[in-house]
Design goal:
Blueprint lengths: L9 E2 L5 E2 L20 E7 L9 H17 L3 E8 L2 E7 L6 H19 L13 E5 L4 H9 L1 H7 L4 H4 L11
Antiparallel strand pairs: 1-2, 3-5, 3-6, 4-5
């Protein structure tokens, strides 16, 4: 049998049909999963960077974002921001793309805020976002940065590259 051949699946002692790479905890075997210690630091802003995130909605907005992450099976490690932008760090679920995470988080949180506003008010996120991979050694540092957004902005101790949510497109054609 060559190394690319598919091994047949086998039944677990509990009767469940198992793939060759996994197990079932019910029948005494250990269930296996992907090891994916990937943490992503997302940054996105309100439409036109308007100060739309007031103190009256900030706590509920962050709670909503955490809930969306939990529903997607992404561990929310930190969420914070300012009146015009949000930082989020998640341990990424192996089945999700960055775009899918942002679509769900931005869409769900925008809907929640819009429902809380009065009929003459509006809320929207800009379409762009930034995403940075965070190494294991820098996780605690990034969490502190996200949770201390207000202090960093007040004290001028920002990470400029972590505050930008988009960049100018470069045309590769000569």
């Amino acid at each position: 049998m060559n190394s690319f051949a598919v091994r047949p699946s086998a039944p677990c002692p509990c009767g469940t049909q198992l793939p060759w790479w996994g197990g079932c905890s019910i029948g005494g075997e250990t269930r296996r999963r992907n090891k994916l210690p990937v943490c992503i630091h997302f940054v996105w802003a309100t439409k036109n960077r308007l100060p739309l995130i007031g103190v009256d909605i900030e706590r509920d907005l962050y709670r909503c974002i955490r809930g969306i992450c939990t529903n997607m099976k992404c561990e929310c490690l930190a969420v914070g921001g300012m009146e015009d932008h949000v930082h989020l760090m998640v341990a990424l679920n192996s089945t999700l793309s960055l775009g899918r995470v942002m679509k769900q988080v931005k869409g769900g949180s925008s809907r929640m805020v819009s429902e809380r506003l009065g009929p003459t008010e509006w809320f929207a996120w800009q379409p762009n976002y930034a995403a940075f991979a965070v190494s294991t050694t820098n996780r605690a540092r990034v969490v502190r940065y996200i949770e201390g957004q207000k202090q960093h902005h007040a004290g001028g101790t920002l990470w400029p590259e972590a505050e930008a949510t988009d960049e100018e497109a470069v045309d590769d054609d000569p």
